[in-house]
Amino acid sequence: MAEVVLNGVSKAFGATKAVVDMDLTIPDGAFVVLLGPTGAGKTTTLRLIAGLEKSDSGTISIAGDAVDTLTPAQRDVAMVFQQYSLYPHMTVRENLAFPLRSPYLKTPEDEIARKVLNVAEVLHIPHKLDNKATELSGGEMQRVSIGRALVRDPAIYLMDEPLSSLDAKLRADLRVELKRIHAELAATLLYVTHDQIEAMTMATHVGVLDEGNLVQFGTPRDIYENPLTTYVAARLGQPRINLLPADLLESAPPPGALTMGLRPENIRHGAGREANVVRVEHLGDQTRLHLKVADHDVITLTDPHTDLSVGATIQIAPLNPLFFDAQGARIG
Amino acid sequence: MSSHSITESSSRAKWIAGSLVILYALITMLPLVWIVMTGFKSPADAISYPPKVVYEPTLEGYVNLFTTRTRQTEDYLLANPPENWADEIVRQYDMVIVGPSKFGERFMNSVIIGFGSTFLSIFLGTLAAYAFSRFRIPFADDLLFFILSTRMMPPIAVAIPIFLMYRSLGLSDTHLGMILLYTAVNISLAVWLLKGFIDEIPREYEEAALIDGYTRFQAFYKVVLPQAATGIASTAIFCLIFAWNEYAFAVLLTSATAQTAPPFIPTIIGVGGLDWPAVAAGATIFLLPVMIFTIVLRKHLLRGITFGAVRK
Ligand SMILES: Nc1ncnc2c1ncn2[C@@H]1O[C@H](COP(=O)(O)OP(=O)(O)O)[C@@H](O)[C@H]1O
Ligand SMILES: [Mg+2]
C-alpha cells in the first residue's frame, strides 16, 4: 500500500476537458471517494492513475515514484471496472486467480488456491467458484470483480462505481463489507461514485468533482459542514440543502452574500418567519416537511410522529446558515 | 387459462416450419446423395436409363479412383491369380492393377494448400483485424477500403498477370505459390469479418488484463482470442471452403507437382471410358474434409454467422 499523488494532471478528449489540472493526494491507507455526477471525469481519473490513459500534462506518482512512463502492469494497481470486467470464458475461480498467475506476480499454485478461497469467503461466493462467469447474477458478478482486485496486494485499489448496478440491499451489504476490508487490509483505496451515501459512509476523505475540476477535498464531515461552494453543498445531504436568498430568513446577512445554504436539519421550528406546510412525507424514521416561504421551497425535518398536516403554518429560523456569494463561493 | 405468446409458436406452426426445413434439406441433399450413390455403382448401373435407385453396391469406383490398371493377355491372367478383393474387381475387365493413381497425391495437395492457406489467412487476418480494431492506425479507413477493394472483381480477372508473375518468380506449380495465392484472396474477407468480431469484444477485458499484470500480447492471447473463437471458426470455414473448392487458378497454375483435387477429378473420366463411379467416388472423398471441418466447428459457426448479435 502506498501514497498516490496527482500533480497538475490534465486530460482532454478533443474539446472535452475530462480532467482539469488536478492536484490530489491519496494518503497511504486512506479510503478516498471521488464524488461527482456522470461525466465529471471520475472514470478518466482512475484510468489515468491505472495507466490506461496518458495524461496531457502533470505527473502521477505512486509511493514517491513518478509512474507516467510505466505500463499498467508496472504500476501495481488493481482496478474494479464499472462494467464488463469478468472474463466470460473463465470460471469464477480462474477469474480470481488470473491476476495472481500473471507474469508480474507469478504466485505459486498453493498460495493462489488459498488466496482465492479466502477472497471468495469474504465476498460470500465460495459455492460459486466453479461456475462460469456468465452464469452469475449481476450482484455476484460485481462481487467477483471486486474479488479479482482483492486477491492482490497492490499499491492502490481503484474502484469505478462498483456498486452502482446492484440493488439497494446488496449495495448496503457491500458498503459495510468494503469498509471492513479497508480496515482489515489497511488498504489504500480510490473509489469513485455519484452516490453521496457511499461517499459519506465509507470514505476517510471525499473529493468532489465538477466537470473535471476537483472543487473540494476533505473529510466527509468537513465537506458536509463546510462546503466551499454551493455545488459541493448540493452534492451532499439527503434531502438536499436548501439554497435560498440570503435575506429570506436572516435580517442581516454578511455583506456580499447572495445565497444562504441551510441544511434541512438546521432549521429551528417555533420562532422566526412564517412558513406554510405544502406536503408531509412520513419516512418512518423521520418526517420531511415541504414548506413554502414567500414562494420559495424549503425542506425541513421534523418529529416522526408529527401532527402537522398540509395547510398548517409554522415558524422557522435558521441554525448555522452557510452564505455564498454571487459566484457560489462560500463567504461565511 | 391459456394465452398466445408471440415468442412461443403454436405446435401447428412448428410442424409446418419443420416440414418446410425437411423438404428443403431433401431437395438440396439430393445431388449429394446421388453422387455418393453413384460412387458405389458399377459403370453400367451408373449410366443405365431409367436411373437405378436400387442396385448392387460395388467398390469398383473406389478401386478405379485409387489405382492405375492395364489390360493383360489371357495367359498372364491365368498365370497370376488375383491377390486381393481389389484385384478381383478389375479382373472382370481382364485388367490388372499396376500401381496407385495420382488421386492420393492430389488430395494431399488439396489438404496442404487448403488448410495451409486457411491457417495463414486466419493468422494474419486476426492480427490485422486486432490492430485495426484497437489501435489508431494512420489512414485506417483507406487501408480497410483498399483491402476490401481486392475483392471487387473476381480473382480470376487478374489470372494472366498472376500467371506471368508466378512463372518468373518460380512459384508456378508449387505448394507455397498456391498457399500464398489463396491467402491473398481470402485475407480481405478474413480481416473484415474478424474486425467485426473483435470490435464486439469490449476493450475493458484487455484493459483489465493489462492492469492484472499482463502484457498487451498476453492480453490479446489470453483474453481476446478465446472470445473471438466463434468469429475465428466461422471465418476459417469460409476461407477453407474457398481454397478447397477453387478450380480456375488451380487449372492455370498447377500441373505435375502441386495440382489440387478439383482439376484432377474431371481427368479421371478419361482414363478408361466414361468412368462415372470413379468420378463420383473422388467427389465423395473430396467433400469429406470440409464436411468434417464444418461439423467440428458447427457450434461456433451457428453463433458466428450472426456476427456477434446473440453473443453474450
Ligand atoms: N475515450 C473518450 N473519448 C472521448 N471522450 C471521452 C472519453 N472518455 C471520456 N470522455 C469524456 O470525458 C468526460 C468525462 O468522462 P468520464 O471520466 O467517463 O466521466 P464519469 O466517469 O465521471 O462519468 C465526459 O464528458 C466523457 O464524454
Ligand atoms: Mg464513469
What does this structure look like?
- Chain A has 332 residues and is of the alpha+beta class.
- Chain A has two domains: 4-234, Rossmann fold (3-Layer(aba) Sandwich); 243-331, Nucleic acid-binding proteins (OB fold (Dihydrolipoamide Acetyltransferase, E2P), Beta Barrel).
- Chain A is 25% helix and 32% strand.
- Chain A contains nine helices and 17 strands.
- Chain A has helices at residues 42-50, 72-75, 92-97, 109-122, 138-150, 168-185, 196-202, 220-225, 230-235, and strands at 4-13, 16-26, 31-35, 57-62, 65-66, 77-80, 156-160, 189-193, 205-210, 213-218, 242-245, 259-262, 267-282, 287-293, 296-302, 313-318, 322-324.
- The longest helix of chain A is centred in the middle third of the chain and has 18 residues, at 168-185.
- By secondary structure, chain B is mainly alpha-helical.
- Chain B has two domains: 43-101, no CATH class; 104-306, MetI-like (MetI-like fold).
- Chain B has 15 helices and two strands.
- A two-stranded antiparallel sheet of chain B has the order 1-2.
- In chain B, helix 6 runs parallel beside helix 9.
- Chain B is globular, with a radius of gyration of 25 Å.
- The two termini of chain B are 34 Å apart.
- Chain A binds chain B through residues 50-52, 71-73, 77-79, 81, 83-85, 87-89, 98-99, 102-105, 134, 148, and chain B through 202, 204-205, 207-215, 218, 223, 226-227, 312.
- Magnesium ion binds at residues 42-43, 82, 160 of chain A.
